[in-house]
Write a structure and sequence with these properties.
By secondary structure, the chain is an alpha/beta fold. The protein folds into 2 domains: 24-212, Cytochrome Bc1 Complex, Chain D, domain 2 (Orthogonal Bundle); 233-351, Oxidized Rhodanese, domain 1. It contains 16 helices and 10 strands. Strands 3, 4, 5, 7, 8 and 9 form a 6-stranded mixed sheet that branches. It has a two-stranded antiparallel ribbon with strand order 1-2. Strands 6-10 form a two-stranded antiparallel ribbon. Helix 2 (39-48) packs across helix 6 (108-119), helix 5 crosses helix 6 (108-119) and helix 7 (138-148) crosses helix 11 (201-212). The radius of gyration is 24 Å and the shape is globular. The structure holds heme C (2 copies).
């Protein structure tokens, strides 16, 4: 009797094992123990990331900054995915390249600490998606994409109400498995729905193939512009601009442009990490990342209007403004619409080749 039970148990175990590990599908991997906290990472995260991704990684403090603590994200991404997407950022979106060598603020050790802090939010078992290969038909994926994805991610993955899917860094770092499982399961506690119950597997594969075929939004290796030198003042010697911020903070792009066209003098601060400034910036603006304003404020005149800007368009520029105001720079405001709208309106920009 005992032997029979034993044989049945071994049989069941074998079936279970085969079902779990067979083929190239995703596999749950046991979580040995909780990921340890990283106090250094927590502090760096609080300084550089929380303003957009939220204090606890809940996301959406600014624009489409994702929910980094989402278990559906953490369980399927590798440390190197988080690290590379942080180091290189998502050029052309508010997600800057944070790697020090790229003009960001984090050296390799600090980057690892931030990744460890992010990882410490993970409570569920990791899923190994490295064996997942998607062999879909991109052309066939166009229709279901237009039907189910476009309103949020844009026609060509350029982003609409949700993040982009055509970014070169995403395209290079996201594996088939990451994209497949995200589409199938969605991301709980975010607006990304799971399509597993709605679309047949083959159709999901086609959509994934379609997503992977998006032309990249900007060239992956954007050339770097040199650090600016010389006068921080635009139209030096001109009459000082007089601006009226809405709600005491926000200056419309058209007002700034009109002041510049009238030859009036003011200062524009690009408050993003230098890595973004190197890709493109408003003509005549100086680079002063929000986390450097306090230590570099003596470079700024006190009698002229200072306009800070970013891409988000208010989170980073808002931090820079708060730093300026705390130092007594009263004539200061935020470029209300941000740099991307400035560029869309055809106002003067310096763009790297
Ligand atoms: C100015 C706002 C902002 C700041 C500051 C910021 N991010 Fe982001 N982050 C974003 C946005 C927006 C996206 C989505 C970009 C896109 O559309 O591809 C993003 C995407 C990401 C992704 C990719 C997520 C995914 O689902 O694939 C990671 C990882 C990430 N950020 C980590 C960080 C870390 C770590 C920091 C701090 C060092 C940071 N971010 C700072 C706005 C920000
Ligand atoms: C209602 C809006 C919405 C719809 C519809 C939607 N998504 Fe998403 N999607 C999101 C949001 C929001 C996120 C980011 C979630 C987070 O991690 O915070 C996301 C994330 C993703 C990601 C992860 C990108 C990355 O960098 O990590 C992929 C891939 C994706 N969506 C593909 C799709 C596809 C394909 C479809 C259609 C089958 C689709 N989405 C439909 C809102 C949507």
């Amino acid at each position: 009797m005992k032997r029979a039970i034993g044989i049945v148990l071994i049989g069941l175990l074998m079936i279970f094992f085969a079902a779990y590990c067979g083929g190239g599908g995703p596999r749950r991997v046991p979580l040995a123990k909780p990921f340890p906290p990283s106090p250094v990472g927590e502090q760096l995260y609080g300084k550089y990331c929380a303003l957009c991704h939220g204090d606890d990684g809940e996301g959406y403090k600014a624009d489409e900054a994702t929910a980094l603590r989402s278990q559906d994200f953490l369980t399927i991404v590798s440390d190197s995915y988080i690290s590379e997407n942080t180091r290189r950022g998502r050029p052309g979106t508010p997600m800057s390249a944070w790697g020090l060598e790229l003009g960001g603020a984090l050296d390799a050790g600090e980057l690892a600490a931030v990744v460890a802090h992010t990882r410490a939010w993970q409570q569920e078992q990791p899923i190994d998606v490295s064996g997942v290969k998607v062999d879909g038909d991109a052309e066939a994926g166009a229709e279901p994409y237009a039907l189910h994805c476009e309103t949020c991610h844009g026609q060509q993955g350029e982003g609409a109400t949700a993040m982009t899917l055509n970014n070169p860094v995403f395209q290079e770092t996201a594996s088939d498995g990451l994209i497949r499982l995200t589409v199938e399961h969605g991301r709980r506690e975010t607006k990304m729905p799971g399509f597993g119950g709605q679309l047949p597997g083959g159709e999901i594969d086609d959509v994934v193939a379609f997503v992977k075929a998006f032309p990249p939004s900007i060239p992956p290796s954007a050339a770097s512009l040199d650090a600016p030198t010389g006068d921080p003042i635009l139209n030096p010697g001109g009459p000082p601009a007089e601006l009226t911020p809405k709600d005491g903070r926000f200056v419309p792009a058209d007002d700034v442009k009109a002041a510049l066209d009238a030859g009036q003098s003011l200062v524009m601060i690009d408050a993003r990490p230098f890595s973004d400034y190197q890709i493109s910036h408003i003509e005549g603006a100086i680079s002063m990342p929000f986390y450097d304003v306090e230590k570099r404020a003596d470079e700024l005149p006190r009698d002229l209007w200072i306009i800070t800007y970013c891409g988000c368009p208010h989170a980073i520029s808002g931090q820079a403004l708060d730093a300026l105001r705390a130092l007594g720079f009263e004539k200061s405001g935020i470029l209300d619409e941000g740099v991307y709208v400035w560029e869309d309106r055809g106002y003067p920009m310096v763009v790297s080749e």
